[in-house]
Specification:
single chain; about 290 residues; mainly alpha; MetI-like fold; 2 domains
């Protein structure tokens, strides 16, 4: 009887601990919804979605979100252009070519990149990558989307490589052996059998990498500049949604003002974007598990 009550108590304790994450998520969403609603009471949704200028901290206030969205997607696109090929090639090597001992050494070394503080990546982009790129691109701005995106891609490589490696190693060896029996080479087996079979897991790693790029803060805040510029030119300074939130949250803007409430509207837009990609990654992982 005593053991039964103890098990029940442990079950309730674990349920309460598990509920903390759910309650935290609901709390974040509730705050974003409430504060965003207060913002849209003062700023028409039409201006927010259709205007092409974002100057809420200027004398002439404009609230078009698209310059921040464009900057966010530009840096994310550059980051994924770097991380997807490198991460996938690393995963192919670890899964299909590396010996087990080599894999046990290399995989943790690659994953060390994920443990480097993002502020270090930011200064690496500003003080090392940008001057290096200027030797090839003289008209490159000191703050630009290109160097920030490249370094973001380096940071995301461990996410792509680790998850893709796990997906490819989950492919049954019988499929590989059947391909070899039909006369296919190792290269043909990898690209015609292994990758298509593990595609759901690989694609979910790409989407999680995109979500990580969309939410990155310090690299873009340090290296990309803080200029809300509606452009797709990676050589120019831009401002992302997260960088704007950091800019306003530094304390120079009084709390409770319209300018301060813009960070909640921007944050809610960013939340919807990352939520979409995370849900998409969840369904792809679920399909892969089947």
């Amino acid at each position: 009887m005593r053991a039964k009550w103890f098990d029940k108590l442990v079950e309730l304790l674990l349920l309460g601990i598990s509920s903390i994450t759910i309650l935290t998520t609901f709390g974040i969403v509730a705050i974003l919804l409430y504060e965003s609603f207060q913002f849209f009471l003062k700023v028409p949704l039409k201006d927010f979605l259709l205007d092409t200028q974002w100057t809420p901290l200027f004398y002439e206030k404009r609230f078009g979100i698209w310059p921040l969205v464009a900057g966010t997607f530009l840096t994310s696109l550059i980051a994924m252009s770097v991380s997807i090929p490198f991460g996938l090639f690393i995963a192919i090597y670890l899964s299909e070519y590396a010996r087990e001992r080599t894999r046990r050494i290399l995989k943790p070394l690659v994953e060390i990149l994920a443990g480097v503080p993002t502020v270090v990546y930011g200064y690496f982009a500003l003080l090392t990558v940008t001057p290096f790129l200027k030797t090839f691109i003289p008209n490159l701005s000191g703050f630009n989307a290109l160097s920030a995106g490249i370094v973001m891609g380096i940071m995301i490589i461990p996410i792509i490589s680790s998850l893709s490696d796990d997906a490819m190693r989950a492919v049954p060896n019988t499929l590989r052996e059947a391909s070899y029996a039909l006369g296919a080479s190792k290269f043909q087996t990898i690209f015609n059998v292994v990758i298509p079979t593990a595609f759901s897991g690989i694609a979910s790693s790409f989407i999680l990498g995109i979500s990580r790029a969309l939410g990155e803060t310090m690299i873009v805040a340090i290296a990309a500049g803080q200029k809300p510029n509606l452009t797709l030119n990676p050589l120019e300074p831009i401002e992302t949604m997260t960088a704007y939130i950091v800019q306003v949250s530094l304390g120079d803007v009084p709390h409770g003002t319209l300018e301060f409430s813009t960070i909640f509207a921007v944050g809610f837009m960013l939340f919807l974007m990352t939520l979409f990609f995370n849900i998409l990654a969840y369904f792809l992982r679920k399909r892969s598990a089947l």
